[in-house]
Amino acid sequence: MKKIIDFIVTEKQSFPRAALLRLKSDMPLPEIRGGQFVNVRVDGCEKAYLRRPISIHNVDYQSNTIDLLIQEKHEGTTKLCALPVGATVNVVLPLGNGFTMPGKDDNVLLVGGGIGIAPLLYFAKKCNYLQNINFLLGGRTQSDLMLLERFRNEGDVFITTNDGSMGEKGFVTEHSLWNTMKINKIYACGPMPMMKAVAKVAREKGIWCEVSLENQMACGIGACLCCVENTKEGNLCVCKEGPVFNIERLLW
Amino acid sequence: MVKTEIKLKGLTLKNPVMTASGTFGYGEEYADFVDLSELGGIIVKGTTLHHREGNPYPRMAETPMGMLNCVGLQNKGVDYFIEAIYPRIRHFDTNVLVNVSGSNIDDYVTAAAKIDALEDIPAIELNVSCPNVKQGGMAFGVTCSGIEQVVTAVREVYHKHLMVKLSPNVTNIAEIALAAEAAGADSVSLINTLLGMAINAETRKPVLSMVTGGLSGACVKPVALRMVWQVSKAVKIPVIGLGGISSATDAIEFLLAGASAIQIGTANFIDPAISAKVAKGIVEYCERQGVEDVNELVGGMIV
Asked: Looking at the predicted complex, does its ipTM rise above 0.85?
């Protein structure tokens, strides 16, 4: 069941051009799957008329909080990143379908690029029945890779940066683990060129792969048909039929 | 108790609040947020005779206090609607209206006739004002002869309440409304979106795949309100007002300008529960103002 909830920002951590917000509410949280997203209203910003879809970085049912890791992209997200502790945030959640849960014997690789690392943490927590989880996280430079300790708590973390400031130099698809690691399921979230590159590798190696798209949305609930992705089944709403798609459904 | 019922020809709304086509899906998308029985009606997504894939992505550009879209009437066609969707939504405890569009008169007529046969659809909204399709759509809605042709043809096969949705992209919307009335429309709804565009200065490319798109949202409200006022003075049939309505106060302004009922569109995206809140807010306004019947507000602007 989707809900509209007023949350309070209870904790905040700032990064260069990004922020981690912890949002708390008195209303019980609905059940949230890994890879689902929220739609956040931006108050007091005339250029951000519509809500901003943000992936869910973490959920804690005990404290009734969700964590959002937000990148400053334009006016709306910049405004959200500037919210102080104590501010009220109106959120519609949970939206979209989320990642398909792996089987208990699957060898999964979670690939994140830039701010696309955000939803992989909560998804990994949902996959805690797996023996091991591997993250492959990529950024342009070291400072793009935030909150690594959180990921290390959930599994093994492999890193690439374009400038070589951390981990292996290059793109995620150039990491040496692709030659050695046994993988049968890939979950990817990040910039479109990265996900296309990951999908290409997955196809070449015959590995099952899901990607999380972020086409520009208006409603977030499948009503306006603005965020469509042209797929093998025609135009599908990323907000409702996605954001997670198996690459076999996509045209790229 | 404030009386909120609005009686239109062959169509009774329990209150003046409907949801605008293309912003409310088939109602189901909003069922978690809104008790649909609290609405006067819902107008479902634009339906055409044949399946339409719509326009390529990107279809949306945000603007200050509004948005442009060029969705282009993506829908699976009227037969799919009748077989797959109608059975799921026909028993909603509110009026379910279908917005009907086409690229030629025959398509409009065939689709309207099929929907005429659906017992639980009390009205259609004829869309002669979509700015995002290459053929038809707005082309019919911007000339008196065009609107006369299509409304006359549909009127022959459609026997229930026929609402005609008008384009604001005309020189004199009152003349267009009069043409629709003369051709047999039971009501007119206005405004559809205002034609606009957006350019990315960095890439020098248009933001929308179709270059132009329809502007909606709070920013269009003053234009819509003015047009509702002009049209309601010109025609005898009821006027349904829409365009940027985001609160009960906005809705009341439209009633005062001459609208008999209103539709909520883009505001549904920002607050998915807004439609029922507006319905409640209208009653609260009436109580505060000592208005016993919402109908008293219609055209009640004091000049």
From this structure: yes
**What is the 3-state secondary structure of B21-81?**
CCCCCCCHHHCCCCCHHHCCEEEEEEECCCCECCCCCCCEEEECCEEEECCCCCECCHHHH
What are the E-state strand segments in A96-184? Answer: 108-113, 134-139, 156-161, 168-169
Containing structural domain, residue A142: 108-212
A163 shares a domain with A142: yes
pTM of the model: 0.97
- Per-residue confidence at B129, pLDDT binned at 50, 70, 90? confident
Q: Is the dihedral of CA A129, A134, A136, A141 positive or negative?
A: positive
| Tokens found for residue B98 | 């279908």
How many Å lie between the alpha carbon of A213 and the closest alpha carbon of chain B? 13
Query: Does residue B229 form part of some domain?
Result: yes
Asked if residue A60 and residue A20 are part of one domain, the reply reads yes
Q: Do A223 and B33 touch (CB under 8 A)?
A: no
Catalytic residue among B130, B144, B219, B286: B130
Residue A239 in any domain: the answer is no
Q: How far is CA A137 from the centre of its chain?
A: 12
Q: How many domains does chain B have?
A: 1
What is the distance, to the nearest Å, from the Cα of residue A189 to the centroid of all Cα atoms in its chain? 6
State the CB neighbour count (10 A cutoff) for residue B203: 8
